[in-house]
Amino acid sequence: MIDDSQEEARHNYPYFLPDGRHFLYFIIGRRQDRNGVYVGSLDGKTKRLLVSRSTSAIYVPPGYLLFADEDTLFGQAFDAERLELTGQPVVVAEDGGRNTAFMSAVSASRTGIVAYAGIIPRIGRLTWIDRSGSALASAGVPDGDYTDFRLSPDESRLAASLYNVKTNALEIWLTDLARRGAFRWAPPGLITASPLWSPDGERVTFRSNRHGVIEFFERSAAGGGTDRPVLSGRTSLGTQISVEAHSERLVA
């Protein structure tokens, strides 16, 4: 059960242990010190943090957990009876990735064969093109995996969501196109993306799951000051429920 007193937002990725009563799962919420992989039980009496990372884990006989951290796949000895990790994590494979929902992209057979996916970014280059589709010049930003980007109203600056290979997170970078200077603009979360400029170019609205659920914030385009909440997770959830209920009434 989600514990509101600890500001938990979601429980994801359950994976049953051999006894069929205990399971691994991931908790994400506002408190970074409580985010990670836990072991729980069907009777609700067990809840213990095992791995303090934003990832999921699986159990592999005769007694290991496998999980991805940044761009590396790790294994660590796990006592399935005591429900405890022992020793230190060891590298199983380099370039072991997670999917876009931050779930470790790994599976293992009972014979010890491990299958895993590599990291997911597709490195590209932002380029100016003319109306005929011919390339003119580079936009002056580093090559990377850009998921979305927007020019400022005066077309002098670029706000772009860039995938960080090391942290498996989306970050917003702002670039002065004339000076070709870029900087990480918004505080990090697993997802910090979809920048939208204000008409005067002074502020940028963006989405972030820094508190465990997707919320919308606004901050100065200069990068200073504090973020102003535009739409909280609870508000957006309530809006969704209201819209769905209204749709059901229309169908009925």
Could you explain the architecture of this structure?
The strands form six sheets. A four-stranded antiparallel β-sheet has the order 1-2-3-4, with no helix packed on it. The protein has a four-stranded antiparallel β-sheet with strand order 5-6-7-8, with no helix packed on it. The two termini are 33 Å apart. The protein folds into two domains: 4-116, no CATH class; 127-234, TolB, C-terminal domain (Neuraminidase), CATH 2.120.10. Residues 235-252 have low confidence and may be disordered. The chain has one helix at 233-251; strands at 8-16, 22-29, 36-41, 47-51, 57-60, 64-69, 72-79, 84-94, 106-108, 114-116, 127-129, 135-138, 146-151, 157-164, 169-176, 181-184, 192-197, 203-208, 215-220, 228-231. The longest helix has 19 residues, at 233-251. With 252 residues, it is mostly beta strands.
Flag low-confidence runs.
235-252
Which class of secondary structure composition applies to the elements? mainly beta
Question: Over all CA atoms, what is the radius of gyration?
Answer: 22 Å
Helices and strands, in order, run as EEEEEEEEEEEEEEEEEEEEH
Strand content: over 45%
Number of helices: 1
**Helical fraction:** under 10%
Distance between the termini: 33 Å
Strand order of the largest sheet: 1-2-3-4
Q: What form results from the Cα inertia axes? A: elongated
Characterize the biggest β-sheet. Answer: 4 strands, antiparallel
How many strand segments?
20
Average pLDDT for all residues: 82
Number of domains: 2
